[in-house]
Amino acid sequence: MSNLQTPILDHIVILVSHETLLGISKQVDGQFTLAPGGNHADGLTTNKLILLPDGVYLEFIAFFDNIDPEKRRAHRWGNEKENTIIDWAFTLRSEEDFGAVQQRFKSAETEASYTDPIAGGRTKPDGTVLKWAVCVPRNAQGKVIPGSLPFWCLDRTPRANRVPYEVEPHLTQHPNGVQGISSVSVHVPNGKVSSFKGAYDAIFGGAWNYQVPSGSTAGARSVSLSEGETSVRLVFSGLKQGNVELLPGLVLEIERQ
């Protein structure tokens, strides 16, 4: 498959309460350097980021406490469990390349598909306006459990504005030595692996390996699928082996690269 269409791991979404987000710098102090995020265009959520040297980032996202509860429930992440990885995103070099992904789904052995690009964005604390489009997975019933398939985040303004890992490299230097994401493991409900396998085959068009924005070849850069309670698990690549507690109960492995 053309490298233009090879999925590029973009970011990992971790849901927290707004109170936790406001104090997240204390939680990650001594482990990670925190980068500012901003408020999303829909007015429902806000975030803060951890930028990794490979160009992927972790997004801590929270719903504002004063929003309409109905609007939160209607949001695709509004009913997910806080302090967990709830979703993850791929990107491509150009939004135009997504057409090839959609084309592969038309002949895939799966019930899943993706929406056409939906406009989104947020404003950074310095006033910079970011624009992108998201493509969300769906099935015959209308939607897929968040995290069981990645969504796509396709930039309409320069990605460097959204993820300044090269522009501000000091933000990617972490005390624990984490360098990037080595692998992503996805658990889906019992009996559903075969259906999801068809979807992942269509996403990748070959081996289940992703690229990272920096072009680094460290780590496995692989995706795996297994049965169990729906969840997403990561393995970091880093300068030293060990574990890191991102949030209470959310412990991730660091694999020496």
UniProtKB/TrEMBL annotation:
Pfam families: Glyoxalase_3 (PF13468). Residues 9-191 form the Glyoxalase-like domain. It comes from the Eukaryota. PANTHER family: BLL2707 PROTEIN (PTHR40265), GLYOXALASE-LIKE DOMAIN-CONTAINING PROTEIN (PTHR40265:SF1). This is Glyoxalase-like domain-containing protein.
